Amino acid sequence: MNVENVDLVRMVLDHEVVDGDDVPCGMVDDLELEGGAGSKLTVAALLIGPAAWTARLPWFFPEVARFFVGRGQHRIPWTEAAVVGDRIKLKSTAGALGLDAADRRVGKWLGKVPGSEAD
Amino acid sequence: MKALELFLGILTAVGGFVEIGELTFALNAGSKFQFALLWVVALGTIGIIVYGEMAGRIAAVRKQPVFHLIRERAGLTAGLVTLIAANLVNLMTCAAEIGGIALVWQLLSGWPYRPLILATFVLLALAIWFFSFEWIERVFGLLGLLMVVFVVAAVASRPDWQAVAGGFVPQVPATADPSQTRLFAYFAVALFSSIVLPYETYFYASGAIEDRWTSKDLNMNRVIIIVGSVLGSSLAVALVILGAQQLAAHEIDAELPGTAALGAGIVLGTWGLIAALCGMLFAFGGAAIETTLSGAYNLAQFFGWPWGKFRKPREASRFHAAWLVLLLLSTLLIVSGVDPVQVVEYSIVFAVVTLPFTYFPMLLIAADKRVMKGFANGLLGNVLGWFFLVLTTLAALAAIPLLLMTHGGRG
Q1: Quick check: A78 contacting B, CB < 8 Å?
Q2: b or e along B292-317 (b: 16 or more beta carbons within 10 Å of the residue's beta carbon)?
Q3: Helical axes B20-33 vs B76-109, angle rounded to 10°
Q4: Chain A residues within an 8 Å CB radius of B306
Q5: Which of A51, B172, B355, B391 has its CA 20 to 30 A from that of B336?
Q6: How much is the pLDDT for A110?
Q7: How far from the centroid of its chain's Cα atoms is residue B247's Cα?
Q8: What stretches in chain B show pLDDT beneath 70?
């Protein structure tokens, strides 16, 4: 980790997550904390995906949003975070963590269109 | 090489400055109020320079596009509301541009309107799919430069230059009729909004990252945004002059985009008319592509998907699918029979409502010395940034009441 004190709200939550190759692989949609009152509170994982961000919406919107975007979620252990800066850089690649699943799914269809391999 | 890049960047900014909304409102502003709204063009141009420069600077220094900043600084809920509003405006603007292209194409060819909408969809989709970002910018930006014919026509129409210069002094025409004052205020807000449309900053910042700008490119960023916007706004000024000189004189109401070309045609003849129509075709085409790509950029940046034309469609498949879906939805909206000019009028008014939500997070980051270090706003940047933030907030508050009170600018 590159910094000693991490302000979770200002420096982690709602920040972009990139993999070890600097490829974007989501936003920090929520955080999983461990430890209760009186004990040491630690970050257990970064939560990425619709289930995490929809749960943070007010009123009845979580259910409405989940109807459209689903309930998928990835749990990335905090120990995977290599750098906390303008973005959160992970140690592994998106593929190794399963964070590229949605793009691979859509990519199967787009890959059939001529020109999909061009830059 | 840098000089060539700079030159092309400026030309592209000029060619891409005017789209159907600005064209409609500038012409109508001239035809209804002569030169009295020219100061709004000047004010809007300074506004887009201030925030465009900030967007480009943040993108070059932090490699962060606008919707990262909105999510990071405004938070999830406010950011999501901004995303939905911004993309609805993008969708409506793109639909209007597609309708505008089909109308202009119809004038040039005489072919039926609705099949031309579908042909426009196919051509735009092919252009985005097969062209690189650089080529999209250059082809549509440079061919959009044919719009310069409006400047030639405006000069050739021999306006009273003293009266034109007087239009740059902020003013509200003295009238006993309050409905005329409300109409003037509506056109002032709409013309301002059409110049500072939020998609321009989304696209500009994303484009800076597509073009791999770094902090070494900050001077180029400044020159492109200042010179490009000032020269581009001269097209808007020319449209106001033509509206005042030609449309008002011939009692023509600018209800269709083709009316603008008529203004050039009356002054310059057939070739002026054809050049104006071709210029509009590419200017609207460029704006349609920019709005549809902006929509996809916004989604991808807000949710952290891989994005960019520099990535192969297989590597950024959700981003590429998103622009295709947005382009299709825009086409379906316009093919359903709605009037493109009416769509653009609503989109321009709703656009100004989203502006403060776009500008505020950008200003916070650009002014933050901890994150921008030596590249943070100076005193002038902060003063102008806050001034335009307050101004856009006032315009946002007034926009919808004025739209309702003036019956969409019809008095």
Answers
A1: no
A2: bbbbbbbbbbbbbbbbbbebbbbbbb
A3: 80
A4: 23-25, 103
A5: B355
A6: 84
A7: 23
A8: 1-9, 11-12, 15-16, 254-255, 411
Smallest Cβ distance to B304: which of A16, A107, A118?
A16
- Among the listed residues B85, B74, B126, B118, the one whose alpha carbon sits nearest the alpha carbon of residue B289: B126
pLDDT of amino acid B4? 65
CB B126 within 8 A of CB B306: no
pLDDT score at A118? 58
List the CATH number of the domain containing A101.
2.30.30.240
Q: CB B313 to CB A17 under 8 A?
A: no
Mean pLDDT of chain B: 89
CA distance B316 to chain A (A): 7
State the residue range of the domain holding A77: 3-111
Nearest C-alpha in B relative to A86:
B62
Q: What residues of chain B lie within 8 A of the CB of A74, using their CB? A: none
Structure token digits, residue B34 = 């002569």
User: What pLDDT is attached to residue B65?
Assistant: 87
- Token readout for A3 is 């910094």
Give yes or no for a contact between A69 and B302, defined as CB atoms under 8 angstroms apart.
no
Is residue A56 in a domain?
yes
Classify residue A44: in a domain, yes or no.
Answer: yes
Asked whether A49 and A74 are in contact (CB, 8 A), the reply is yes
pTM: 0.90
User: Is B382 exposed, middle or buried (CB count within 10 Å of its CB: 0-12, 13-18, 19+)?
Assistant: middle
Whether residue A116 lies inside any domain: the answer is no
Neighbours of A60 (CB within 10 A): 8
CB neighbour list of residue B264: distance below 8 Å, 6 or more residues apart: B149, B150, B152, B153, B242, B272, B273, B275, B276
H or E segment at B340?
helix B340-367
CB B93 within 8 A of CB B197: yes
Q: How many domains does chain A have?
A: 1
CB within 8 Å: A116 and B312? yes
Cβ atoms B225, B137 nearer than 8 A: no
Nearest CB to A115: which of B62, B64, B130? B130
The answer to whether residue A66 is domain-embedded is: yes
Residue B231's CB is within 10 A of a number of other CB atoms, namely: 19
